[in-house]
Structures are given as C-alpha cells and as structure tokens.
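Regression test case RT-17, inverse folding.

Input:
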C-alpha cells in the first residue's frame, strides 16, 4: 500500500463520523440501497447475495485476477514544449485531452504553464497520469500556476460547515484541500451532472482532482461540454433563455450554520476568456428560474426539461478513468461533470482543490450577447 493510502486510512480511522458510519454498516450488514446507483449496480452484479458482506465478497471474487499492464496503442499528437516530449491523447472530439509525458512536480516553467493553460481553455478538461509522487503541497503549487486557491469550495468566507467525512479530514499543510472519500463502509459518489459550487456568487473557475486510490474498474468521472449544450437547444428556447437567470441552490452538505447557500446566475453564460456562449444550467443545483421573470410554471418546466436533455448526451461527453496518481483539471465554467457510481465495494479516495480567476472582474458569471 502506498504512503498516501496508508495516511488516508489512518485519517479515516481517526475520524469520528467515519468510524460511526463503519460501525453501523458492519452491525447492520444490509446491502447498499438500490436507490443509490452504487447499490443498484452491486445488486445487478450479485443478485443472490442477501447481506452486504456476501455481496461485497461476491463482487471482489468476480474481479479477482485483474492485472495491470499495457494492452493497446492509441492515437495521440506528439508535441515538444520546453524540451519535454508530450503526447496529447484526445478523449472525445470537443473536450478532454490526456497530457502524457509530464511531471507536474517539476516540468512547470512559464512556457509549459502557458501551453497547458491554452490547451485547458480549448479542451476544458486536461488529465495527467502517474503523478502519485505529487504531494498535496506540490498540487497546490501546480494549482497556483492557473488560479487563486481559496477555500474548499472556492470563495473564502463562504464555506460549508456541515459535518461530513470529507470536510472533517484535514490534509496536512493544505487546509484548502477537500477530501472525497468512499469505500465499502461509506458508500458515496457525486453522481449527478453539476459544476462545482455554482451556488457561490463567484463559483470556482476550475477544479483539480487527484486520485489517491481507485478501483481497477469503475468510478470514472464523466464530463459534458456546455458549449454544445447551448448549441443543442432549439432556436426558440435559446432565444427565450437569453434574458433569463436561474437560481443555483446548494445541497444539505453545503449548508453554512443551517442556511442553504444560493446564487442567481444568467442562463446563458459568456465564457470570460474565450467569449463563447455556454448553457449555465445544470440541474444538480438549479431547480428553477428566477421568479422575477414571471415565466409560467408549465413553460418553465418545459424549458428546464429541454435543458436537462442536453446534460450527459453521449456526443457531448467524455469519461476519464482514474488510477492512483491520475489528475484531472477542468474548466468549471464550461463543462459539467458527474462521478460514475458503479464501484461499490471498492475504495475511491480523491483530493480536490478549486481555483478562482486571478482576474477579479471575471469571477462573477455574466452574459454578453455575441
Ligand atoms: Fe463535483
């Protein structure tokens, strides 16, 4: 077991909320609810199992014998930046590129950072492999090349204080790091289309996620192209949407002293750097349009339903497979993401930093007709 994983397990075992969850799960020995996709996929893989432990061991048996190794060639674009030979592997036509051949702990001179930033703006999700040696502090240094690292959910001073396992684990030296943990005892995954913390007035410009442990199969993060979502709406809806705003409301885990945070943002958003229009409605956090527009309830429901259909269309999405040491950095303004909740009973331990734009005037979402 790697040092990082041992450290995480120690932190979990010293965490009161986690040990409570673990003790309860072990005492009840009940399968994970099928209302949660983690439970549904597990039940589909092992329908005969009556208890949680039977189901877990049956799934582990099915996956026994998997080995790690090279199986195929792939398409990539070779590029040399600052003397470093990179291989750029596209994941899908419009979004997602894996940058092979870089060491994020050292290959970060100005030319490389400028190259990565341009690639990130174009592809909106860039991924890296084999970065397990990158410490949380080095990950923060990498993040700071692109934006201002503030709190766990972006803006400082607007931080959820609801107890949860992830929030309650402090990563040494990097208080801004959010830990996202799931395992056999504490099942969970953010398995709905969303952009991070859009319930903030100034939502994160980007998020950077490091995988410290992942299952051999499953637990991918999927991304969805918000420029394509805007283009895919009917002309009529696009026209109507241009004058609308929507209310973004946080979830229970985002509450601050019992208050649920919310913000109002335009329905179409102008990307502050590329100038392109994107659909800034994701129904993870948006449940309704702002009431001041007076859109009749049936019309509002029809519009939101049309927008919802754009979320996760196969043609707009890519999947990023995790492995220990994989990192993904996404443009939180222009893609949605969702975890794939299919990996119970395996562990998935992630570390996330969010960044805000160094240019303060670009932080608040706006719409400027093209
Ligand atoms: Fe997220």
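Golden output:
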């Amino acid at each position: 077991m790697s040092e990082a994983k041992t450290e995480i397990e120690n932190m979990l075992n010293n965490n009161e909320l986690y040990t409570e969850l673990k003790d309860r799960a072990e005492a009840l020995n009940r399968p994970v609810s099928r209302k949660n996709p983690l439970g549904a996929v597990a039940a589909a893989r092992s329908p005969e199992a009556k208890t949680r432990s039977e189901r877990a061991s049956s799934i582990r048996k099915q996956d026994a014998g998997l080995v790690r190794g090279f199986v195929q060639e792939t398409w990539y674009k070779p590029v040399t930046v600052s003397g470093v030979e990179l291989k750029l592997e596209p994941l899908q036509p419009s979004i997602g590129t894996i940058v092979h051949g870089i060491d994020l702990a050292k290959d970060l001179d100005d030319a490389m950072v400028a190259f990565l930033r341009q690639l990130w703006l174009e592809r909106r999700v860039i991924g890296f492999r084999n970065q397990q040696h990158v410490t949380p502090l080095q990950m923060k240094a990498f993040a700071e090349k692109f934006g201002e690292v503030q709190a766990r959910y972006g803006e400082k001073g607007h931080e959820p204080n609801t107890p949860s396992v992830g929030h309650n684990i402090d990563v040494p030296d990097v208080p801004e790091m959010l830990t996202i943990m799931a395992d056999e005892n504490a099942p969970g995954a953010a398995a709905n289309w969303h952009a991070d913390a859009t319930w903030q007035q100034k939502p994160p410009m980007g998020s950077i996620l490091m995988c410290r442990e992942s299952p051999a199969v499953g637990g991918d993060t999927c991304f969805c192209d918000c420029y394509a979502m805007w283009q895919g709406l009917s002309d009529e809806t696009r026209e109507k949407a241009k004058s609308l705003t929507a209310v973004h409301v946080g979830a229970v885990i985002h509450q601050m002293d019992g208050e649920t945070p919310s913000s109002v943002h335009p329905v179409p958003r102008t990307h502050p750097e590329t100038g392109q229009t994107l659909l800034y409605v994701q129904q993870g956090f948006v449940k309704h349009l702002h009431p001041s527009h007076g859109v009749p309830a049936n019309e509002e429901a029809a519009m939101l339903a049309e927008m919802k259909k754009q979320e996760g269309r196969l043609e707009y999405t890519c999947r990023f497979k995790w492995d220990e040491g994989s990192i993904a950095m996404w443009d939180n303004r222009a893609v949605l993401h969702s975890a794939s909740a299919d990996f119970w009973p395996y562990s998935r331990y992630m570390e996330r930093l969010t960044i805000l734009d160094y240019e303060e005037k670009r932080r608040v979402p706006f719409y400027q007709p093209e």
